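> forwarded from #structure-qc
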């Protein structure tokens, strides 16, 4: 059988990083470095404006990592992702105001409502593909916004005001710096969870579906359930981002959840590198902070912002930090301590060589 395989078209195996620069980007310590920078930032600049921008950027990172599960891992184009953020924000606001609860006590309700929203929109539509799914999700985002704009319980066009901040173990974390630190820890855990999901068995199934859905189904993967799982996980991440958003601003309205916000989150995922959590974090930080750095230029900043995005897409269409096409194959030295596994692989090679010499099939 082996002589029938065309090895000239086989993908290049990726082994150890080719250079120190590549090794730096693959380092597992980069996450801790980014967390350290986020922790140190208030010691450098702690004005209310800076804390407001930084907290918004952290929440944006959470939304981008949630959409990365849907778009980056599973390849489902979602143009209405901000609707899940709206569901989470309105659920947290309504429950906390109606029962005078701390907003963290609304997390179970937020989870239930976002999962229901994911099931309601995902169950009938995930049998569609590509452009059709994008159109349906775009319509879902607009339906949620228009519904919030016309219901009494959501406050209509005025929205909901006076949403309580974060209180934890008797401490008031509503002030800018404590709330920023709470968001950094909360979002870091969820980003880590998103990365671990991507490396799990379910994550590999998502990537298989993204690369070739028909082949995945032929190999026994229930593609519908796998896609629905991705959609629900993405909805949960978006709903929790909405809860943080409501606690941060203490007021929400339908104008906070327009299509532009969905486009910006999707842009962060594409710009950062679909399927790579690290790249998505970088993309979210760039998309959320770049307009603020250009604020002194007035309305011209939007033109510059758009030109910069176009240039990045032309010069680096795969994103700042794209995902690997393959998982790194572990070397013998990395198989495990004690050399037990290494010996097993060598034994396997010896057996294969011996079988080859004797003409037996390995």
């Amino acid at each position: 059988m082996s002589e029938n395989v065309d090895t000239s078209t086989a993908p290049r195996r990726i082994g150890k990083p080719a250079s120190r620069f590549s090794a730096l980007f693959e380092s597992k310590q980069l996450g801790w470095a980014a967390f350290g920078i986020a922790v140190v930032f208030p010691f450098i600049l702690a004005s209310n404006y800076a804390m407001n921008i930084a907290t918004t950027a952290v929440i944006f990172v959470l939304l981008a990592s949630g959409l990365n599960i849907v778009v980056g891992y599973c390849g489902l184009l979602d143009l209405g992702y901000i609707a899940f953020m709206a569901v989470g924000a309105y659920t947290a606001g309504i429950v906390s105001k109606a029962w005078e609860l701390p907003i963290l006590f609304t997390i179970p309700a937020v989870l239930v409502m976002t999962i229901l929203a994911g099931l309601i929109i995902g169950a009938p539509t995930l049998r569609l593909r590509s452009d059709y799914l994008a159109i349906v999700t775009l319509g879902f985002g607009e339906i949620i916004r228009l519904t919030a704009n016309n219901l009494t319980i959501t406050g209509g066009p005025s929205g909901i005001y006076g949403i309580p901040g974060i209180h934890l173990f008797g401490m008031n974390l509503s002030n800018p710096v404590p709330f920023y630190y709470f968001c950094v820890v909360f979002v870091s855990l969820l980003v880590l969870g998103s990365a671990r999901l991507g490396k799990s068995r379910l994550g590999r199934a998502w990537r298989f579906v993204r690369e070739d859905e028909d082949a995945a189904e032929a190999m026994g993967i229930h593609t519908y359930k796998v896609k629905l799982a991705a959609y629900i996980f993405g909805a949960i991440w978006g709903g929790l981002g909405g809860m943080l958003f409501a606690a941060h601003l203490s007021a929400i309205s339908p104008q906070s959840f327009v299509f532009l916000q969905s486009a910006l989150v999707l842009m962060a995922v594409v710009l950062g590198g679909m399927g790579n959590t690290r790249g998505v974090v970088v993309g979210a930080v760039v998309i959320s902070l770049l307009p603020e750095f250009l604020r002194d230029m007035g309305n011209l900043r939007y033109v510059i912002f758009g030109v910069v995005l176009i240039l990045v897409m032309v010069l680096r269409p795969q994103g700042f930090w794209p995902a690997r096409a393959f998982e790194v194959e572990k070397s013998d030295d990395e198989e495990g301590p004690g050399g037990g596994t290494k010996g097993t692989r060598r034994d396997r090679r010896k057996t294969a060589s011996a079988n080859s010499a004797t003409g037996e099939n390995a």
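QC bot note: The chain has a mean pLDDT of 82. Strands lie at 160-161, 167-168, 171-172, 251-252.
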